[in-house]
Amino acid sequence: MNLLYKIIQTAAAMWLGMQLTAGYVTAPILFRLLPKMQAGEIAGILFAITAICGLVIFGAAYA
Question: Hey, where are the domains in the chain?
Fold first, then answer.
């Protein structure tokens, strides 16, 4: 049980890192280098991926 708790805790920390990286690093770079429509599409995909990962991780933590 303790190992499972550590795995879920590590996954949650990785998810937070994904969120911060997508929001504060990747999105501004995308909007600086690409046209706004293309950057918005890519950023939307990145945020959707992190949202799904968060649902899976926190669903596992809740179970």
Answer: 36-63
Residues 6+ apart with CB under 8 A from 49: 18
Show Cβ contacts of residue 15 under 8 Å, excluding neighbours closer than 6 positions.
50, 53, 54, 57
Q: Which residues contact 57 (CB under 8 A, 6 or more apart)?
A: 8, 11, 12, 15
pTM score above 0.90:
no
- Around Cβ 58, how many Cβ atoms within 10 Å? 14
In angstroms, rounded to a whole number, what is the distance separating the alpha carbons of residues 2 and 25?
Answer: 34
Query: DSSP alpha helices (H): ranges in 1-63?
Result: 2-21, 27-33, 36-62
pLDDT < 70: residue spans in the chain: none
